[in-house]
Structure formats: structure tokens, C-alpha cells
Backbone:
């Protein structure tokens, strides 16, 4: 056997022992293709939305919560479920909000992509330099009553042109969609990736859109949208739905589902009560993983993946306490060593680690000076970046903006 094959087989052998085909974890719901199999919990929240959908009037719903809490997963699962149960009575569309796009344009694009047989929808996409969801050769168009096939639409030569009146274009397209479907649901994801002031402005500009005839599901970030904005009677949303961390039992059940989605041989009873269900974890180390991840689905996924990688390297047949600790140490290194972090980011991170938490109230003038800024507000983008890198978390306080290290890094010496 040659060397590569030997290495390859050794590496595979441990997965065989674990009864896993591969590492089942994924950082973002966008990349996960077996969501239905692994999605866990959120029953109360799902039933709230499903309940609302029985009404005739279109509603707008905001799903909000911190990065990695499961907003995209929630929206994906919801739309897939609705489609399954309502069939053609409902038209669902989902889009990630790109920077420099207003909500009407995003809605227009999302809807047009779901109407591949509607010429006008395709024309709109084409003008913006975007492709239809259907391959070109499958598209048909009628000319003079005859059906012709367009083999060569010269898409690339059409200058991308943003719609001049995106809200009106959207309304027109919605009219067409509502002739064929009882309900049109548009999910606009990643409003949380915009900076808070901009997110706010986008929402204000979209008031008419959100009160219109389409259902809207938006995902956001609590920092962009102030409390009264959500709760007041004049609020933009009929239902603001907060997603929080999963409780320990739900986290554990989630871990079981992920592992079960990648079993080589099915486990007869993949129930959380069965210790086999978390193999190669032990029930204790599985619980410990859920605890250090504080029930944040993205962290469970990330740490879980690092732990399995480390355990594979160590050729550990079982993830016992020592292997878990080695895995968590590896996770810490990986998180700290991510590409894209600048010396300033490390400096700020270490400052937060040293202080335990950072806020406008707790930062000193001296520290601000060292960071070369005058006010705390100036370092908010840097702090948010560290949140996105899973190094810090924003504390769930309503008033002040406070950041603390993720529990994985807590109590660790800031040795960079
Ligand atoms: N309820 C859940 N059950 C199982 N996996 C989940 C759940 N919520 C989130 N996840 C997973 O956690 C990771 C982060 O979730 P995601 O939806 O991308 O977070 P967000 O959109 O809030 O940043 C993804 O891999 C996702 O599939
Ligand atoms: Mg998301």
C-alpha cells in the first residue's frame, strides 16, 4: 500500500470506530443540506408563526437573535415545511440581503427568481444582470403566438440596471404571483449583517412594503432594532420573535441528531436517553460540550467539529474528559488563529479577556487612548467583528452595550 493510501485509511478507521461517515457539523445553516434531519427544538416559536399563517392578512415577522443562534436555520426550516404542506397554494422565496440593496429590490429579486416562467419577472432579473433560477435553455418565450426556444439570451451584454421604482416593480410582480398563489412569503435574511444604523434606515424605508400584501420574514440582530421599535403598536412587525439559546436538554438532543445524521450503521434507538446515541462522546462529555457552548447552535457545531478533528488526530476511540479538553484547547487555538484578525483585533480581544467584560461604563480613558480612539462607540465595529469570529459575545442587556469573551475563552491567559 502506498503512503498516502495508508494515511488515508488510518484516518478513516477512526471514523469507522466512531460509527460516523464524516463530521456532521456545519457553522452556518446556509451550508447544511440535511437541516430537516438535525433541526431541534423551537417548537413554541414555530407554532407561533404557523398559527399566524392561518390568517388571511399578510403579516410581517421579525426573527431576531444573536449571530449563530439559529435564525437562518429557523427560516429555512419554516419555508421548507410550509412548501411541503401548502404546495402550490403558497409561493416562498428566500434571499440574503446584500450590502447596498434596499428591501424592495431584495424582495423583487427573491420573488422573480421563484417565477422562472414569468417573462416579466425574468426581464426584471435580466436588467439587473442576474440569472434566472432556471437554466437558460429551459426557458421558453412566445413570440407572435408561436413558442420559441431561446438558446442564447445575451444576458451578459445587458447592462445591469437597478430598478428605478423597486417598490412598484415588486408590487407589479406580486400581483402576478398572487394570481397563482394564495400566499406569497418572502424571507429576507441577514439584515443583521448590515450596520445597525443602516438596518434601521432600511426598515424605515420599507414600511409600506412590510404592510403590503406579501408575508415577510426578516432576520435581524437586536442591536440594529431598538426595543420600542419592535414592541410599540406602530411597530413595523406584527410578530417580533426572539430566538434565544437552546436549553441544555435541547442542546443535547440536537447533538444526538447531528451525530445520528452521519451514522454508518443506524443506531436502533437513537434516543437521548441511550448513551450510544452520542457515541463517540460519552453522555458526560456531550453535556460538557453543550454547556461550554451555552446552547448556541453555531458554537455547538463549531466546537463539536474541532473536538472530532482533534480526537481523530489523537486516534481516540472515545471522547473522554481528557480528549474533550484537548479538543477544546484545539478549538481555542483555531478560533484565535483565524485568518482576517489584525493585531488591533488581538489587542482588543486580550483587553476584553483581561477585564472579563467591556462596556462604555467600564472602559477607562487610558484604555481608549491605547486603542487610539476617543469614544467607546468607535470600537463597536471591531467588537462586532470579534463577535462574528465567535471570540466575543454581546451580553443580553437591553440598555448598555456590553461584550464578554465566549465561555470557551474565559479564564484563559491571553497568550497571543
Ligand atoms: N434549532 C436548531 N437545530 C439544529 N441546528 C441548528 C438549530 N439552529 C441552528 N442550527 C445550526 O447552527 C448553526 C448556526 O445557525 P444559523 O441559522 O446559521 O445562525 P444565524 O442565522 O442566527 O447566524 C447552523 O449550522 C445551523 O444549522
Ligand atoms: Mg444567518
Residues:
Amino acid at each position: 500500500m502506498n503512503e498516502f493510501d495508508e494515511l488515508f485509511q488510518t484516518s478513516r478507521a477512526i471514523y469507522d470506530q466512531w460509527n460516523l461517515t464524516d463530521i456532521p457539523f456545519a457553522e452556518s445553516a446556509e451550508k447544511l443540506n440535511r437541516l430537516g434531519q438535525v433541526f431541534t427544538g423551537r417548537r413554541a416559536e414555530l407554532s407561533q408563526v404557523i398559527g399566524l399563517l392561518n390568517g388571511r392578512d399578510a403579516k410581517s415577522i421579525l426573527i431576531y437573535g444573536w449571530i449563530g443562534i439559529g435564525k437562518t436555520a429557523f427560516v429555512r426550516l419554516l419555508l421548507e415545511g410550509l412548501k411541503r404542506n401548502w404546495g402550490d397554494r403558497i409561493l416562498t422565496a428566500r434571499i440574503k440581503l446584500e450590502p447596498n440593496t434596499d428591501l424592495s429590490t431584495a424582495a423583487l429579486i427573491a420573488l422573480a427568481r421563484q417565477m422562472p416562467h414569468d417573462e416579466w419577472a425574468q426581464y426584471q432579473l435580466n436588467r439587473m444582470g442576474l440569472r434566472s433560477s432556471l437554466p437558460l435553455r429551459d426557458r421558453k418565450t412566445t413570440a407572435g403566438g408561436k413558442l420559441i426556444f431561446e438558446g442564447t439570451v445575451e444576458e451578459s451584454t445587458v447592462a445591469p440596471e437597478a430598478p428605478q421604482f423597486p417598490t412598484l416593480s415588486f408590487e407589479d410582480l406580486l400581483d402576478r404571483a398572487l394570481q397563482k398563489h394564495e400566499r406569497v412569503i418572502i424571507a429576507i435574511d441577514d439584515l443583521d449583517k448590515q450596520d445597525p444604523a443602516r438596518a434601521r434606515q432600511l426598515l424605515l424605508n420599507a414600511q409600506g412594503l412590510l404592510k403590503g400584501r406579501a408575508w415577510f420574514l426578516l432576520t435581524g440582530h437586536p442591536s440594529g432594532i431598538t426595543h420600542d421599535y419592535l414592541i410599540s403598536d406602530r411597530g413595523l412587525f406584527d410578530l417580533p420573535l426572539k430566538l434565544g439559546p437552546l436549553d441544555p436538554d435541547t442542546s443535547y438532543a440536537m447533538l444526538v441528531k447531528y451525530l445520528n445524521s452521519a451514522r454508518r450503521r443506524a443506531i436502533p434507538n437513537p434516543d437521548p436517553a441511550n448513551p450510544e446515541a452520542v457515541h463517540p462522546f460519552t453522555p458526560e462529555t456531550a453535556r460538557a460540550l453543550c454547556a461550554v457552548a451555552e446552547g448556541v447552535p453555531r458554537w455547538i457545531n463549531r466546537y463539536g467539529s474541532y473536538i472530532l478533528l482533534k480526537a481523530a488526530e489523537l486516534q481516540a476511540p472515545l471522547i473522554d474528559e481528557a480528549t474533550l479538553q484537548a479538543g477544546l484547547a484545539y478549538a481555542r487555538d483555531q478560533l484565535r488563529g483565524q485568518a482576517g484578525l489584525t493585531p488591533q483585533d488581538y489587542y482588543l480581544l486580550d483587553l476584553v479577556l483581561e477585564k472579563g467584560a467591556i462596556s462604555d461604563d467600564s472602559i477607562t480613558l487610558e484604555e481608549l487612548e491605547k486603542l487610539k480612539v476617543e469614544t467607546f462607540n468607535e470600537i463597536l465595529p471591531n467588537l462586532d467583528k470579534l463577535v462574528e469570529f465567535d471570540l466575543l459575545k454581546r451580553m443580553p442587556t437591553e440598555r448598555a452595550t456590553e461584550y464578554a469573551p465566549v465561555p470557551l475563552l474565559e479564564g484563559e491567559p491571553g497568550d497571543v
Notes: The chain has three domains: 42-242, 248-336, 343-405.
